[in-house]
Design goal:
Elements (H helix, E strand, L loop, with lengths): L1 H16 L4 H16 L1 E10 L4 E4 L8 E4 L3 H9 L3 E3 L10 H7 L6 E7 L5 E10 L5 H24 L7
Antiparallel strand pairs: 1-2, 1-6, 2-3, 4-5, 5-6
Helix pairs in contact: 1-2, 2-5
Length: 167
């Protein structure tokens, strides 16, 4: 089964290389990582260092989310520069309940991983929600690996396009 995961990763990588923008690539990234980890939802937050905000236009079922880089589990991921796992989201002090209220979605479990540029600057956060039975250490290891794997694509697209996420 593990070999299958990495074979799928090779096919995914080829498909991602053909994408020419964040808008084309982010849905593919989300679809792949949700399937591999068996999560219900994925958000890929892009970090705007100039405004100290994270934004995503790719958050399943939601138009757009903006979060201050010092708020929530994604903000904690930025500040601690490491992945986080909360299998009881509402019990975690950094969890932003307001987003669930706004979207009507109920988050049970959450896992995040920072996305680093080639110069080790944080350029985003990969977030998955709601895996049946919760997330585990293998999921965290894969999230770290996968965040590194997609970082070149995101960094390249950030360099060549406007990533403000403004509508």
């Amino acid at each position: 089964m593990k070999d299958d995961k990495y074979l799928k990763l090779a096919y995914f990588g080829r498909e991602l290389l053909a994408k020419r923008s964040l808008q084309e690539g982010l849905p593919l990234i989300s679809k792949y990582v949700k399937e591999v980890i068996n999560a219900d939802r994925c958000s890929i937050f892009i970090y705007e260092q100039s405004t100290k905000e994270l934004w995503t236009t790719l958050s399943d079922g939601v138009d757009k989310i903006k979060v201050s880089a010092d708020k929530g589990l994604v903000g904690k991921t930025i500040n601690e520069r490491k992945p986080l796992q909360a299998n009881n989201a509402y019990a975690h002090p950094a969890f932003l309940r307001d987003i669930d209220k706004k979207t009507g979605y109920i988050t049970h479990s959450i896992i995040t991983a920072p996305i680093f540029s080639s110069s080790r600057e944080i350029i985003g956060v990969l977030e998955l929600l709601n895996k049946e039975g919760g997330f585990d250490d293998e999921d965290t290891k894969f999230m770290i690996f996968f965040a590194h794997y997609i970082s070149g694509f995101i960094e390249l697209q950030n360099t060549h396009t406007d990533t403000k996420g403004e509508s």
